[in-house]
Design brief:
This protein is of the alpha/beta class. It contains ten helices and six strands. The longest helix is centred in the N-terminal third of the chain and has 21 residues. The structure holds iron/sulfur cluster.
Length: 284
């Protein structure tokens, strides 16, 4: 019985993924009811897998309903695994031609915080994992400073799943081709909060074009999930003077995460936080 529920959950997410990639929004299609026990589930799954043709998608409006809140971790893992398999085979944009590995994401399946970066770098492309180079080590320190980690309560992903050559910024075409995967991940993960690191991540998720100086310190929403924005760790490695503003951003995020939902709404998400700790960028 649990297997059938997990299969159904995976199918729902595959349909969702196809919706986001093909139409940019939820179509409202549902997995057909299972006639009678057992083997039919395998047939349905095989059919859905073969029918779900992945195409380049357009960004969806921020109005799709949620579906995975409260789903068991095993179901979420299975749904993520099914989508990751599609990503590994994806050739929807030119980045597929130069990647070594796709980088889907890493972390717990029901995270307190989802961290979204721009795209894989050289080390990530080699290992197939997000934020594992110098900036990744710094990101881990930043998260640890406010009691978070990818091992216990965070998930880390990127706007694009394949490395742009020479670490260039992904183009709007590449971002649009890939954003459906991230939308599907968010739908499955249902994080309580999202942190975008860097301008490209914020622009890709929120469909905005403001400079990061006008995005920091403000609260946004994505599908009802509070979103905060700070500098990318790689910017911090290049310019140590950004350490202070990043710490301010992290303190505000921690306070937001700790505040009751009512206070969160009343304060617009900006909550004071005692200035009592710090993190070190060290060697990154
Ligand atoms: Fe597919 Fe995204 Fe990779 Fe482009 S970046 S090939 S859309 S997985």
């Amino acid at each position: 019985m649990e297997d059938r529920a997990a299969t159904r959950s995976t199918l729902e997410h595959l349909i969702l993924l196809e919706d986001y990639l093909r139409y940019g929004v939820r179509s409202g299609r549902e997995v057909p009811p299972e006639p009678e026990p057992s083997a039919e589930a395998d047939d349905i799954q095989a059919r859905a897998l073969s029918e779900a043709t992945i195409r380049a998608g357009t960004p969806a409006p921020s109005s799709a309903p949620t579906s995975s809140a409260g789903a068991p971790s095993a179901d979420r893992q299975a749904a993520l695994g099914a989508i990751e398999a599609r990503v590994k085979a994806c050739a929807a944009c030119a980045l597929s031609q130069t990647r070594s590995r796709t980088v889907f994401g890493q972390g717990v399946p029901a995270p307190e915080l989802l961290v979204i970066g721009e795209g894989p770098g050289a080390e990530e492309d080699r290992q197939g994992l997000p934020f594992v180079g110098a900036s990744g080590k710094l990101l881990d320190k930043m998260l640890a400073a406010i009691g978070l980690s990818r091992e216990t309560n965070c998930y880390i992903g990127n706007i694009v799943k394949c490395r742009p050559p020479n670490n260039r910024e992904p183009s709007p075409t590449e971002r649009n081709a890939c954003i459906g995967y991230l939308r599907a991940q968010i739908e499955i993960l249902r994080p309580r909060f999202i942190l975008c690191v860097g301008r490209t991540a914020a622009h890709g998720l929120l469909e905005m074009t403001d400079p990061i100086s006008r995005l920091r310190g403000r609260s946004f929403q994505f599908e009802g999930i509070p979103v905060r924005i700070t500098f990318h760790p790689s910017a911090l490695l290049r310019d140590a003077s950004l350490k202070r503003p990043v710490w301010e951003d992290l303190k505000q995020l921690r306070a937001l995460m700790d505040s009751p939902p009512g206070e969160r709404a009343a304060s617009g998400g900006l909550v004071s936080f005692p200035d009592s700790a710090n993190f070190s960028s060290g060697e990154g």
